[in-house]
Amino acid sequence: MTVKKMMRIIPGLMVTISAILGLIHSPWWFALTLFVGINLTQSGFTDFCPLEKILRKLGFPEQ
Fold first, then answer.
1. Would residue 42 count as lying in a domain?
2. How many structural domains comprise the chain?
3. 13 belongs to a structural domain
4. Which of 2, 9, 22, 25 has the maximum number of C-beta atoms within 10 A of its C-beta?
5. What is the rounded distance in angstroms from the CA atom of residue 18 to the CA atom of residue 54?
6. How far apart are CA 61 and CA 55, in angstroms?
7. Is the pTM of this model over 0.70?
8. CB 55: neighbour CB atoms within 10 A?
9. Contact (Cβ atoms closer than 8 angstroms) between residue 50 and residue 39
């Protein structure tokens, strides 16, 4: 898996899981959905994403 693919998979899973947990368990899980959305938005404007840095440090290949 490359960093680019993981940058799509991880936020997608986080949004999906938090939405399901928000519907089933507690509405507070929607805060995680909001956090992921805000992070993706700021990443689009600034080209800075903490997840990308973490994945690179973990040794995921660029391409």
1. yes
2. 1
3. yes
4. 22
5. 21
6. 9
7. yes
8. 21
9. yes
Q: Round to whole Å and give the CA distance between 33 and 15.
A: 5
d(CA 20, CA 22) in angstroms, rounded, equals 5
* Domain membership flag for residue 7: yes
Domain assignment of residue 63, yes or no: no
Q: What is the chain's length? A: 63
Q: Given this model, what pLDDT does residue 62 score?
A: 87
Query: In terms of DSSP H, where are the helices of 1-63?
Result: 3-24, 30-46, 50-57
Place of tokens 């519907």: 23
63 residues of the chain, pLDDT tens digit each: 899 999 999 999 999 999 999 999 999 999 999 999 999 999 999 999 999 999 999 999 988
Contacts with 19 (C-beta within 8 Å, 6 or more apart), sequence order: 29, 30, 33
